[in-house]
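INTERNAL AUDIT FORM
Audit reference: QA-55
Scope: verify that the stored structure record matches its stored sequence.
Auditor: D.O.
Record contents follow.
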Amino acid sequence: MYTFSSKLKTFSLILMAIGLLGIGYGFISAPKDIQEVEAILASDAHGSHEVSKSSTEAHAAAGENKVSADAEHKEHLEHVLNQLQNKPWSALYVACIFFMLISLGVLAFYAIQQVAQAGWSPVLFRVMQGITAYLPVGSVLFFIFLILSGLHFNHLFIWLDPSVVAEDKIIANKASYLNFPFWIIRAAVFLIGWNLYRYFSRKNCLAQDEAKDDSFYKKNFKMSAGFLVFFIVTESIMSWDWIMSIDPHWFSTLFGWYVFASFFVSAITTICLITLYLKSKGYLEHVNTSHIHDLAKFMFGFSVFWTYLWFSQFMLIWYADIPEEVTYFVTRIQLYNLPFFGAVVMNFVFPILILINTDFKRITWVLIMAGSVILFGHYIDFFNMIMPGTVGDQWFIGVSEIASVLFFLGLFIYVVFTALTKAPLLPKRNPFIEESKHFHY
């Protein structure tokens, strides 16, 4: 049995405490009115808002009606106010959905291993189940966030604002799908469905340890096959509902796959890093370098898959040059140039250069370094997907972003490593456990 060390527990609680303080500071320090915004703009000589302000003044100087110029300037200030008030909410949302989807990705990977009747991975099943223990906690927090969005505590989803829908024909045409009751019901169905599978699959896996036959294993096999069908459908819809609808004028037929690739490679990387940590503490005696090598191969393979989808989505839209589609990338290239292309370096160039080497796939420090870069790179990927539609050009990595990551990281570590103490780390009666123990190549 794994014992949750007091040092790690303290570390996770400290992260959560620092995160909560930073999140609170982010909300308190957000501007409350346009006067505060004007003061912020005046003190920042490098922001794009100065261009807009100068443009307004230039129009006035050119002889435009002063009332019109003042109205335009006030409208600009209100727009910036909404963006800056969105910023702490957006930072919280990015971290909240990122960690929840990591646990969901691990759950999907676990289900794939069950259905494939994989012989190499059963010694890692309890690690996977420990990581998926975060899914119920993350789901509750995420659902609360969606409820708060529907109650207009924030303005991340502009289609939730009736005044916007009334004036926007494109959004109005999507109102039969993008409306709060239907949206929140879909979210509840998805979250409940995923968590039910997690609960019963773990229950059957633990029961199999004490069983005299393979009946619980067979139940899990059938349940996993059904879950994967449910998952592939709900994952696509989830990506439209929770991320793509932030930019409701834009859509991509590849988006569901793109989001999947991002959180799936993050999930496999998390399995690898936690396995290496447990191994370093003397646990998981049957996990050998061949198991680690296979996890690293998945990290490498899905990094390439993510890049394929990134390039396909970008190239097709950019080449077609349809205004309502290409604006998605124009915004990110012009306003988010560093994180946009930085994500490609961290999520493709770096893994390719490091993990293409077979020997490196078995070296602990190399995998920790590569895994840390991959996880940070895919956090930035989610940042790129969400922030442009919520905060526009008012983005920067500040207290709110760092604090949100620290809080959810601390919570993730606490929940996962607490769950790992609840059951033996080796499934006893899995039909493939002996094959997995002696897995070498």
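Auditor finding: record pair retrieved intact. The longest helix spans residues 66-116.
Action required: none
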